[in-house]
Amino acid sequence: MRNSWADSVENAGSGSSENAGSSSASGASALPKSSYVPPHLRNRTIAAETPTPSFSGPPVGSDRFGFVGQTGGSRWGGSRNDHGRQGYGGGGRGSGGWGNRGGGWNREREVNPFGNDVDVDTESAFSEQENTGINFDAYEDIPVETSGDNVPPPVNTFAEIDLGEALNLNIRRCKYVKPTPVQRHAIPISLAGRDLMACAQTGSGKTAAFCFPIISGIMRGGFPQRPRGTRTVFPLALILSPTRELSMQIHDEARKFAYQTGVKVVVAYGGAPINQQLRELERGVDILVATPGRLVDLLERAKVSLQMIRYLALDEADRMLDMGFEPQIRKIVEQMDMPPRGERQTMLFSATFPKEIQRLASDFLSNYIFLAVGRVGSSTDLIIQRVEYVHESDKRSHLMDLLHAQRANGVQGKQALTLVFVETKKGADALEHWLCMNGFPATTIHGDRTQQERELALRSFKSGNTPILVATDVAARGLDIPHVSHVINFDLPNDIDDYVHRIGRTGRAGKTGLATAFFNESNMSMAKPLADLMQEANQEVPDWLTRFASRVSYGGGKNRRSGGARFGGRDFRRDNSYNRGSGGADYYAGGGYGNYGGGYGPSAWD
Ligand SMILES: Nc1ncnc2c1ncn2[C@@H]1O[C@H](COP(=O)(O)OP(=O)(O)OP(=O)(O)O)[C@@H](O)[C@H]1O
């Protein structure tokens, strides 16, 4: 039987003591409740005073790539390292130093993101879960690699982490019983104030891994006063993601985690009316979740200032820094008014991290820790991977066979959710039309559709109304859609990392999933990386694919997987042969880089 984080929740009826513990710990060294005024309240109630960032020095050591940090105190009123995971300044868990942010922006009007589940009683929330007998502890075996100076030790339970009572309650409302492996390692690292590059399998809980420390840090407070009396807003945290839908999803998640903490999360993405987003921003923002294009727009209109950014998180960081998009990210991070690395805390997350991208990313980081959890890629054995040889002209009928078989096996004749990836936007529309004509309700998501159409398509798919979603790579990364049981690569991507993210739309949070790829002569460049990846994930590799793989000269190009057999996401700093001057002659030259299936154009980025 396979093991599951999700299922572990169901199995955790008796194992909730860590959470119970966290809720009961209340006393230790409490800060006086009345002493803390949330930043946005302070903005409104205290005389305007534009802060003069001192930029007086990075709190952590100098960067090994030549960043010479200034010395002296941080402008944040203390060393970034002063909030270690044992508790900020010796403060204990519990209500003492926490929860006193509640008087912020009209908290009573905050929409409850949990539906009616607000008053969930923790103990009963756990005991209500089904016990499926699945053993969560088997994940203890997952390989983990960390590198960097003084890596803070991992934790085993949420109770060991000083996140704050209000956030702990939301974690229980989310029915998260135990941290997932990436959370066990990444949260203590981030709480210790360290920069982080984290590589962990798809569906393994990376969103919470960067959201929890950010929310917790903002709850803790201690930031300089933000200016008031201006229409420019000054978020404390920025979370960037590559697509609109992913930004919306992160926003939804972060709002749950931040519920009733007084921390305000706002999202800004392209394709939606900017005025509405501006109104929302003007009501106050602590954490801004954004796509790069819309953010640049807001920055250029001086509606948002990054001057006060304390936390920067890049989700799908390798995509954010790949060719074509890197300049936009550099503009945001390096050429606007964001505090430099070392003064802000930077967290980069993805399931894939090619070494060349790591090198680029290191420009944004200061004395960072590299963390790789599990094999890189969703090469988790939770996803059964199949590859079938299918001529171009036979693809449709082959797809039909798969869908018929699936329907026959479906629960009460219901079609399980199936995500079909294709190469082009036109191809997506054509396939959707053909499926509908043949009695399979389908919808499509790609960069040529309006944002409204995209959102409608996603909603209709999630609800099961149209159980087949035909997508370009715009849906390849990050989307967490429960019950996707089958991902079909109708057209394989040109890049093995894209394949990893695509199949990762199934088999999430410990659930099992199936991924089928159609392969033919036009995919020869994928033969070797695909065979390697499948082998690494203990999948059955067809003989014909092995033969193709050995025939194809494998001279590099984009499909070179970086790292050793166990960790595709090895820290590039460990690679002796690597140096800035010579790093991988031209990694991007081959393999059609910049052509992400025709569906990943700039429209997905604003
Ligand atoms: N500690 C936890 N216990 C149970 N479920 C969890 C826990 N943490 C996260 N999850 C759930 O796991 C699912 C996947 O999480 P998430 O979307 O953050 O994955 P991810 O690692 O970011 O994936 P991707 O690489 O595809 O972006 C979500 O539904 C989330 O609610």
Protein described:
The chain has 606 residues and is of the alpha/beta class. It contains 19 helices and 14 strands. The strands form 2 sheets. The protein has an 8-stranded mixed sheet with strand order 1-8-2-7-6-3-5-4. Strands 9-14-13-10-12-11 form a 6-stranded parallel sheet. The N terminus and C terminus are likely disordered. Strand 13, helix 17 and strand 14 form a beta-alpha-beta unit. It binds adenosine-5'-triphosphate (ATP).
List the ions, cofactors and other small molecules found in this model: adenosine-5'-triphosphate
Number of helices: 19
Provide the spatial order of strands within the biggest beta sheet.
1-8-2-7-6-3-5-4
The total beta strand count reads: 14
Oligomer: single chain
**What are the low-pLDDT stretches, counting only 5+ consecutive residues below 50?**
1-104, 120-136, 560-568, 579-605
In short:
The protein is an alpha/beta fold.
Describe the protein's topology:
Layout: H1 5-10, H2 17-24, H3 39-45, H4 122-127, E1 144-147, H5 165-173, H6 181-191, E2 196-200, H7 206-220, E3 237-240, H8 244-258, E4 265-268, H9 274-282, E5 287-290, H10 292-300, E6 311-315, H11 317-320, H12 326-335, E7 345-350, H13 355-361, E8 369-373, E9 383-389, H14 395-409, E10 417-421, H15 425-437, E11 442-445, H16 451-463, E12 468-471, E13 484-489, H17 496-503, E14 513-519, H18 527-536, H19 543-551
Parallel strand pairs: 2-7, 2-8, 3-5, 3-6, 4-5, 6-7, 9-14, 10-12, 10-13, 11-12, 13-14
Antiparallel strand pairs: 1-8
The protein binds adenosine-5'-triphosphate (ATP).
